[in-house]
C-alpha cells in the first residue's frame, strides 16, 4: 500500500507545497542525484554543464529559498504558518536526494546577513531572494580538521577548554577582522559557495566560549578552496575545505561579536541543523522502504513473490515502523520548535539521531531484501544506503551529538 | 531534566484530566502495583481485602470508565474532543502500573452492550456507568489454548482455514445460543470479571470467518473459572481461563451474529486494543527512563555520579530517544484513528510493537545502569522490566502481530 | 537435532566427567533449581530441609571440589589435563542451574588457604577436600555497597584514586589484623558461607592499590550476616551482606599482605571469575535454546508446528549461532588460559560478556517463541531468562567489565 | 595491543605458512585491492596491465592453489595436516582483501576435474598445479537470475518444486551434453574464468533434485560472457554473467550425472563455500578492528585521544569481542569439518553468517569511530565496510542461508 498521510489536519496550503516539492524531488532531484552519484571524480559534479546546476536553478524557481528571508527584504519568512511545514517539506527533499537537498537548502550566510543592520549585508539578503540563476550559494563553515565533535560540545556553557578551541582565528585590526586558519573538507557546498557563515575564534583563552560568527564573501583575497571531497555517500553534495590566509572582512561582517550572544546563537544553529537533518532523513528512510516493498512484491523466488515469505514480511513491517516512528517524532519536534523558538536542542538532536539511524537501518534491510541486486549499481538501493550511512556522521557523528544531547536530560 | 510536554496545543481540558489521572497513577496505582507484585500467590491479588479493590474503586470515582458509554445511556462518550486524548491518558495509566491499567480499563462487554438494541443490555451499560463500587467488571474473552496468534490472522478476509478456527462454539437452539469450549489463561480479568465479550465460532466450516460476538454474564450456569495465572510480569493484573459448558444465552446477547459484520468488528477491536497498548506502554517506557535518569544522577562510583560517564550518557540519551519516538508515534496514530474511524489496524499494530519494544528495551538498559541494584526486589526497576517484557507478548506476540500488519503494506 | 560435540578431540576421561556432571546437572540441579526458584522468601532457600543442601552434598560426592586443591593436601589439582576441562564442565553446571552452579563451585577461600604456608590454613584446605557433608562453604567477599565496578578498575596498575578505595579496612595491631566495614548483598553464598576470601584495604591512601587478601572464618566474633537478598533471578543462589566489626584474624590469615603482589593476584582472580562465568553461561544459553527448539517443533498454530514458519526458523538459527559462537570462544579462551597461566584478563572478560549476552539474548527470543507460555511460571523458560539476565550484571556489570577489558586492547 | 594468537597449539609448519600468506596479504593484496577498488569501470579491473594479474600470479607462486589437488596429479592435497589450516590461511587472505581472496581461491573446476577418471580432466588438474602464469582461472557457476537463494534450498532432500528448478539445462544428445541457459552476474571470476564448474538441470520435472554438475571450458562455441558487474563492494573481485547457447561438452565432463549423487555433492560444495567465507571474513573483521583501534589511539579530540572516551572504549571492546567470537567459531567449525568429512552444513552456514555479520558490524562501528574520515575515500575503512557488506549477501544472502541451516536443527 502506498504511503498515506496520517496527519489529516495539515493545511491545504502546505499540502499543495508538499505536492509541488514532491514532484520536484521525484522528477528532478532523484534522477539527477543518481546521475551525479555515478560520476567518478567529485570535481565533475560541480563542473560546468553538470546537471547539478539545473537542479539548483530549478529549486530557486520554486522560490522556497525565500522562506528563510524576512518579508521586508523581499523574502517570504512567516508565510507558511503550519508548524510542521519544515518537516513536511524536508521529507520531500530527502526523498528526492539527500545530498542535493542539503546542497540546495544551504541558505545560512544569507539568513545571517538578513539579521544584520549593515546595509551591504541586507542587500546581500535581498539579492539572494531574487537570485533565480543561483549566482549566490551559501555554506556553513564550522567544522575543522582537529575540531569536529568539539563544536557541539561548545554549546555547553561550561565547555571552555582552551585546548579544544577552534583553529580558525579572527583578530580585530582597526575596523577589520583578519581571519587565519582553515575549515575542514566536510563543509557542504565548500568548494562552490560564494558566501559562508564562518565560525571563528576571537578569544583563544576561552576555547569554544570565545567565538564569533562572520559572514564572509568567498571571493576575498586570501580565501582558497580545497578540492572536492571524494566520499562513499551523498556524492552529489559538494564538500570541501576552505583556507583563510590573512582574509580581511569589515568589522560589521562579524554578525555576532559577543561570545555570550554567540552561545545562544550556536545553540540555535545546531538546533536548526539537527532538526533539518532529522526531517530530511525521514524522506530517505521512506525512499528505501518504498523501493524494498516494491521489489518484494515483484521479485519471485521459489515460485512466489518473496513478500509472501514470513521473514520478509517481518523485515518490511519493522522497516515500516521505523520510518513511521522517525516521521512522527520529527514532525512533533518540528512543531514544538516552530511554536517555541528557539526550540529544544536535545529534542532536535534526538530527531537527527533517530532519523539517520532509521534511514541507515531501513536501507540496510532493503539491501538484504534485494539480495544480490542490492549490491548492484544498476539498482537504486545501494546508493540510498550509502547516502543514509553518511547522514549518521555528517553534521555531527551520532554518538558525539547524543553525548551533547544527554547534557540536557 | 523532568519530562516536559512537547505538544503545546493540547486542550486545557485534557491537560486537567492528564493531571488528575497522573496523580491517581502516581499516588494510587504505583504503590498498589508494587504491593500486589510482591504477593507470591496470584490468588492473593484478587482476595478480599486486597489493595486491588481500592484501586479499582478509586478509578471508578474518576468516572473515566463512563467515557466509553454513549450519553443517552448516562455515559460521557464524545465529551473529550481532543483526538490525542486516549494517548495522553493511557500514558498516565501505564506510568502508574501497566497491569492495573489494563485491568481497570477493560470495559469491553459494557460498550458492546451499549451498542445493542436489547433493553437488558442497554440497562447493563447504564448500570456500568453508575457502578462506583466496581460490582461490574469486564473482560475480553478471545484467546484460546490452541488459538493465540491465529486470532489476529482472522482479521484478514481470506483467512478461513477451518483447522485454525476457534474452539469455543455457539450453536443456535431455539432462541438461545449454547456455548461450549474454553478461553485461555491469558484473558485479562478472567477470574474476576462479571461479564465478558466472548468471541465464538458459529460456523466451523469457515474457520475464523464464521465467528460471532456475544456479551455473556459470567454467573450463568455452566461457566467455570480457572485459577489465576502465575506469571513473570504484570502480576497485579488478574488473568485466567474461563470454561463454558452448555452455557445458554438469549439470542439477542449475540451482539454480532453475522460473520460478515464480525469481520469489520474484529478489525476494529484489534485496532483499538493495539492502539491502547501502544499508548499505555509509552508510560511504562517513561517510568523506566525516569528511574534510570534519577539513579544515574544520584549513584556515585569512582567519586562521581555515574551520569558523568560517557557510556552512561549515551545509554540514557538512547533511552530518551526511544521513549520520545514511541510517544510521538502513539499520539500521531491515536489522532488519525480518532479522526478517521475505525482507524488503521496496521498503524495501530506498529504502535503496539514500537511502544512495547521501547518499554522493554529502555527497562533493560535501566537495569544495566542500576547495576546490581537493578536485580534487587528492593528497587523499582526489575518490576517495570518484567511488566514491559510481558507487554511484548500480551494481546498478541509482537512478531505475530507484525506479520498481520505487514499484510496491509 | 540434539546438540552434538563439535570438538572430536576431547579426551575420553573428560568426556566421562562431562557425562557424569551432565547427569547431575539434569537430574539433580535442574529440578532443585526450579523448586528453589519458586520459594517466595529467599530465607527459605537456605532453611534446614531445603533441597539446596541435598544438591550441595551430592556435588561434593562427585569430588570435583577437590580439583582446586593441590595433591599434597589431598586434592586432585592437575588431574584433569585437558585444557578445555573447565569450559566443558562449567557448561554442564550452567545447563543444570546457573545459580546453584555458582553456589557449589565457590571454593575460593579453601584454594587460598591451600596456597598459604600456615599449617592451620593448610589443614583447612585438607578438611575441605574431605568434607562430603558440606560443612565448609566458601564465598568470595569483594563487592561493597559503594564499590561495585570500581573493583575491576582496580586491576589497572594506575588506578589508585583514594576516593575509590574499599570501605572494608584491615589494620595491623600486634600480630593480628583487625577488620572493620562491610561487604555488599551481592556476595554469593554470603549468608551461608563458613569461610570467606575477603578483599580488604590496608593502605587507604593508595585506594585500590593498597589492598590485601584475607581468609576469614565467618564464625569469628564481630562477624554478622545480612538477610538473604531478594532478587529477580538466580534465586537458588544465596547472596547477602557480611558485616565486620573489630574482627580479629591472625596475621598469617592475610594470605596476601603486599599490595604489589595483590595486583597480580586480583588480576588472576578476575581472570578466573570471568572465565568461569563465560563458560557456565554457555550452558544457560544452550538450555534456553533447547527449550525453544523443542517447543517450536511441538507447538501447533494454524495447523502446523510453528517451527515451519520462516520467521521462527530464522529466530532459532540465530539463537543456535549465538550459542555456538559463545561456546567456541569460551573454550578457546579456556584453553589459552589453562596453557598460559595466569591467562589473559581481557579475553576472559570478553568471554563473560559474550556468553552472558548470548544467554540473555537467546532466552529472550525463546520467550517470544513460547508466546504467552513464555511468561507463565508453569513453563521453564521465564526462569532461565531471569537467571540469564542476572548474569549480565553479576561479577561485574557487562559494560563496566568491558571498559576494564578495553584498557588491554 | 596487537593481535596475538590464542591458539598456542598451532603447528610450526602452519605458523610458517600463516606468516608467508600474511605477508602476501599485507604487502601485495592490500595495496592492490585499494588500487583496484578505485577504478571506476569494473572492466578496468581485469584489463591488461591491471595489478589484478600481478596479484594472481604472485599467489600462484605461493603454490597454495596446489593444496586442493591430489598428490598423484602433482598437487599438495593433504600436506597440511592441521585441521585448522584452512581457517588460519583464509583469515589472512580476508585480511588482505576479501574480493581478491575470493578471486584467487576459486579452484573449483580444477578440483572437480581432478576427481574425474577422464584423462583429459586429470590433465587439466595437473596443468592447473603447474600454472604459475595464471593461464587457468576457475569459477563456480551456480547462481542464476531467477534462482539465487533457491539453490541452497536445493540441498534439502525434499525440495523438488519444479517451479524452482534451474534455468540452465543440459540434455544428453549422443555422447554429448548440450547446455542452454545462463548464469547470473554474481558468478565470481565470471568474465575472466577459463573453466567453470556449472550446475545444470538434467531432469526439469524434479526441480532442484534433477541436477548435475559439469566442468566446462569457457572457450567452447556458444559460451558468451556478460560485462563485469558494477557494484558497491568487493570491486577488485570480477563477477559477471555467463551465457550458454547450444554448448556441447563430452558426456564425461558431466562429472556428476546422477541426481542422487549430486545431492551429496551440492551439500558438500555449500559446506565448503560457507566454511571458507566464514573463515575469510574473520580476517575482514580483524582488519576493520585494527584500523579503528589504531585511529582511536592516534586521533585527538578535546585534547585527548578519543580512545580515552568511555563510549569509544565500549565500542572497541564490543568490536574486539565480535572478532574473537567469529574467529573462535570459524576455527572450531573448520576443525570439525576437516576431521569429519564432509562436515556439517548448518555449522558452516552459521560460521558464514556469524563472520559476515561480525565483519559488517565491526566495520560499521569503525566508521563511527573514524567520524567524518570514515566516509572519505582517502581513508581505508569505508572500503572495508563496503566489502564486508557485500559478503553478507554473496554466496547466499544471510537470511536465506539461515533458513536452510535451520532445517538441520
Widest sheet: strand ordering of chain A: 2-3-7-6
Q: Terminal Cα separation of chain A, in Å?
A: 39 Å
What ranges of chain A have pLDDT less than 50 throughout 5 or more consecutive residues? none
Secondary-structure class of chain A: alpha+beta
Radius of gyration of chain A: 21 Å
Greatest contact between two chains: A-D, 46 and 46 residues
Number of strands of chain A: 9
SSE succession of chain A: HHHHHHHEHEEEEEEHEEHHHH
- Average pLDDT score of chain A: 94
* Assembly category: homotetramer
> How helix-rich are the residues of chain A, as a percent range?
40-55%
Largest pleated sheet of chain A: 4 strands, antiparallel
Using the alpha-carbon principal axes, give the shape of chain A.
globular
Q: What's the total helix number of chain A?
A: 13
Q: Work out the strand percent of chain A.
A: 5-15%
Question: What does this entry look like structurally?
Answer:
The structure is a homotetramer of 409-residue chains. Chain A is of the alpha+beta class. Helices cover 49% and strands 11% of the residues of chain A. The first copy, chain A, has 13 helices and nine strands. Chain A has a four-stranded antiparallel beta sheet with strand order 2-3-7-6, with no helix packed on it. In chain A, strands 1-4-5 form a three-stranded mixed beta sheet. In chain A, strands 8-9 form a two-stranded antiparallel sheet. In chain A, helix 11 (345-370) runs antiparallel to helix 12. Chain A is globular and about 80 Å long. At the A-D interface, strand 8, helix 12 and helix 13 of A face strand 8, helix 12 and helix 13 of D.
